[in-house]
Amino acid sequence: MVATSNLSSKSTACISELLHQGFHHANISDFDYWDYIVPEPNLNEVVFEERTCQTLVKKLENCLSKSKQTKLHCSKVLIPEKLTKKIAQDVLRLSSTEPCGLRGCIIHVNLEIGNVCKKLDKIIYDPSIVPTFELTLVFKQDCCSWPSFRDFFFTRACFASGSKRTLILSPGFRLIKKKLYSLIGTVIEEC
Description:
35% of the residues lie in helices and 25% in strands. The protein is an alpha/beta fold.
């Protein structure tokens, strides 16, 4: 269906519905009814957001990959399906209200094992921009899975090296936003 801006081509049922809803005749000519009811999605924006999300997913996965031998001392990190995409979407949502968006963000990546929080790395999305906010991402270890119990019962007896472990991440995570330049002071948002 194609809607036009010419009022005479609108159906009488549509105009009657507008009048019934409280619109006056003078207001009908001010806008196109169908454009107001069904806005067209901006496909360029959707594609850009999806690309940005995928880039952020890759950065998160690279961060975990680098950390597995340097900080985590394990051979494998198993990530639940779509966890990094969910995190990336939350990061994009939290950065949407910032002046520079995601470009003004620093993401501190941590892993919570038991009651200890281990710093893994930090991701600076655009190093050329002065950061306006920080996000602290806390992954959690899945302590209810079989490999975690296996590592508990067979510690070093079956493995020659401690780096043969497999770390399984929980589907749960914590994301904390801290605004750096706020008139109100430090604003912390957690999701």
